């Protein structure tokens, strides 16, 4: 700090240097490790869902279940960690805390172990046991709440008590991702479609947990001046559809979503309603029926959010068939179904939840057989 000048001279310059060479060494290595993980990772596949050739319509699922942590949230967790590291929010030995329904926490636990910091996931007690096992596999701790509405406050309070950093995916998801490019999910989809017969999709269908994925797609297509429209599929017991429909940023849902990973009780800061062209409110039983259809078509089990998006994508395909409009539609395979064998693939769970899947199975079977969508 400068020494005082003469009494009648200029005031001394206040100068405080908080440089921390040891921290910068740690930070450079942490960022390198996260970027190296991305460099080692191959792109995820774009799977083609079989449709009758005479429709001249292609339906694709971007298979995000092949990431190292098994879900779409791997991309988000990488972006959140780089964002927080470069902002100076993550420090050696201080824990990172996140409010999550499971998949983001699995991916963040992976990156926390990669850079060598503790991680605590604040989750609803109803989170699937398999997700909890995977979080703990990566050396992290699960902290449960009985009321999903309290996750945010509990995560923030836990960060305060421990001197850690609350990652807050629901605020930072849309701003942590470089939506202009840099191999984000939207750029990846368009690169993979380049040699297809309909390379610019008519619709991209996403589901919303944070809203970050739909925001990335929507911004990217506008930035590059594509005509693609963005549809967000919302499950029961979520406020996103109502808030979007009513232009109500204060919309709330009293119950938690049964479709893990998507649907929220409040309008999250990362959900950008103005960037969304269309929304659908999908019955949970329809989401499960779509999982049956996916398994029959591709031999793959997937999580409930994939079913929500696939139901909406097939409904859009049905509209294109009725109009005689050729083109392509893209949706997401978000995570593997093996995490939910005791839920969406369990007859006992479906019965306990009062979900009758049969009518929706019939709608999908009739559509794929005749091209007619009933209901």
What does this structure look like?
The radius of gyration is 23 Å and the shape is globular. The chain is an alpha/beta fold and 375 residues long. Helix 3 (103-115) links the parallel strand 3 and strand 4 (119-124). The protein is built from 13 helices and 10 strands. It has helices at residues 21-40, 73-86, 103-115, 129-137, 151-162, 169-176, 185-192, 212-223, 240-245, 284-298, 304-323, 347-352, 358-370; strands at residues 46-49, 57-63, 96-99, 119-124, 141-145, 165-166, 203-207, 229-235, 278-282, 327-333. 42% of the residues lie in helices and 14% in strands. It starts with 20 loop residues before the first helix and ends in a 5-residue tail after the last helix. It has a 6-stranded mixed beta sheet with strand order 1-2-10-7-8-9. Strands 5-4-3-6 form a 4-stranded parallel beta sheet, sandwiched between helices.
